[in-house]
Structures are given as structure tokens and as C-alpha cells.
Amino acid sequence: MAKVLFIVSGATYWVLKDGTRYATGYWAEEFANPYKAITDAGHEVVVATPGGVTPNVDMMSLRPAMAGGEKGALELEAVIRDAEVMRRPLKLSDVRLEDYDAVYLPGGHGPMADLAFDADAGRLLTAQLASGRPLAIVCHAPAAMLATRIHGESPFKGWKVTGFANEEEEGVGLASRATWLLEDELKDKVGVEYSRGETWKPYMVEDRNLVTGQNPASAAVLGKRLLEILG
After folding, report:
1. Which InterPro entries match (predicted)?
2. Helix-strand-coil percent breakdown of the chain, rounded to 5?
3. How confident is the model at residue 77, as a pLDDT?
4. Which residue blocks in the chain are alpha helix, DSSP H?
5. How far apart are CA 72 and CA 202, in angstroms?
6. What's the rounded Cα separation, in Å, for the pair 184 and 207?
7. How far apart are CA 83 and CA 146, in angstroms?
8. What is the rounded CA–CA span in Å between residue 173 and residue 170?
9. 90: exposed, middle or buried (Cβ count in 10 Å: 0-12, 13-18, 19+)
């Protein structure tokens, strides 16, 4: 049995260009699908957040229109409700990476508000990348790579990565309202070799021990790949 660390945003809002607080958190299917796949396979999941705060689900991600219908929304709700680990997260500052076989970061706009600027998240991602053990990151969660920079340099520079595309941010109506866009910052400030697939379709990039997914639909694919790697 493997032990997988989920690094989850603790944010409840994201400040937009005009100062508006946009309600957010983690995206339901990006937590629920990999969590269910990993725990159903008999592995253990431990959740950690900045300061050990209880993660907040982005309510928009539980709307039937966003969850593939009423049934999909209810299934996601049930997984989250039963996930006791979400109610007693560790503090990122207390995490001992050597205790885990893999690390996974779900997205939602939450990571744009906290993980992108969190020194502990940056330290853990840097160490996990260097360890050679699996590191899986989906959607907006690659924002945490920004926190790995020391004097402007990130260990992720030159790595093949995907993440939520500018076109997808435009699709949800936030591109023009955001203070920064993930695709741009990954390319310009982290220096990754960014690629993307079709909007809203599953797209995964694997480079050595790093596996990234573009959008919510990619989370299930990432969870499946993580299971294969864990054996």
C-alpha cells in the first residue's frame, strides 16, 4: 500500500484586477476523481494545506453543468463528504516528504491565491521533483511552481508541463479580470516548456517523474497514471 500526499489549496477567494473577491477553492472533480481511484485501490491519502486550514470546495464545481449532470454532481459531493482526511489536514510546514510515495496537487483557482506564493509549497515541490518520486499536478495547481523560484530561478525550468490554458481562462470569463494568467506565468517566470491540448479535453504531459494535466477533465487521467506508477 502506498501513501500519497495531496497538497490542497486552503483559499476561499481569489482577488481580481479590480479588487473583487472571487469565491473559489479547490475544484471538486480534481480532488474527488484521483482520491477515489487511489483509495479504492487500497492506497492511503493524506491532505496538507497552508496553515492546516480546512480546504474549501469551489461551489461552482459542484453545479450539474460543471460536473457532467446531476448524477455526476451528487457523486462528487458523496466522495468529498466521505473524505474524512479533508477535515483534518496537516500543515504544509509539518510535512515530511520521506513519508510519502507520491505527491498530487488538485487545482481550482485556489492555488492562484495561495500555493503560488507559499514558501512551504515551493520547498515541497522542489524536494519532490529532486527526489525522483512521482509528482502529479493538474489544472491551476502548477501555479505552485511559481513558489519554487529562488532569485528568479525555478528547478522546473525547461521541464515539459501543461496547465490551465489562457483560452480556457477566457472561456470561464476570467482572463480579462485576472491579475495574471497561469499559462503566461509558467512560460515567462518559471521557464517551463509549456504545451496544451484541446480546450476542456483531457491532456496530460509526462516528463521524468513530473506528470501534469491541463484542466479538470485531465484529473481522472492523472489519477489513473499515478496508480500505474505506484503499481
Report:
1. Class_I_gatase-like, DJ-1/PfpI, Prot/Nucl_acid_deglycase
2. 45, 20, 40
3. 96
4. 28-40, 70-82, 110-113, 119-131, 166-171, 182-185, 219-230
5. 17
6. 20
7. 29
8. 5
9. middle
Give the pLDDT of residue 108.
97
Amino acid at site 124 = L
* Three-class secondary structure of residue 62 per DSSP: helix
CA distance 141 to 182: 9
The pLDDT tens digits for 135-172 are: 999 999 999 999 999 999 999 999 999 999 999 999 99
| b/e per residue 158-181 (b: at least 16 CB within 10 A) | ebebbbbbeebbeeeebeeebeeb
pTM over cut 0.85: yes
Residue 23: predicted pLDDT: 97
Whole-number Å distance between alpha carbons of 163 and 196: 7
Name the nearest CA neighbour of 200 among 182, 220, 212, 216.
216
**Pairwise CA distance, residues 112 & 24, whole Å:** 10
User: With contact defined as beta carbons under 8 Å apart, do 41 and 75 qualify?
Assistant: no
pLDDT digits (tens, 9 = 90+) for 17-73: 999 999 999 999 999 999 999 999 999 999 999 999 999 999 999 999 999 899 999
Q: From 222, 230, 145, 229, select the one nearest 191 (Cα to Cα).
A: 145
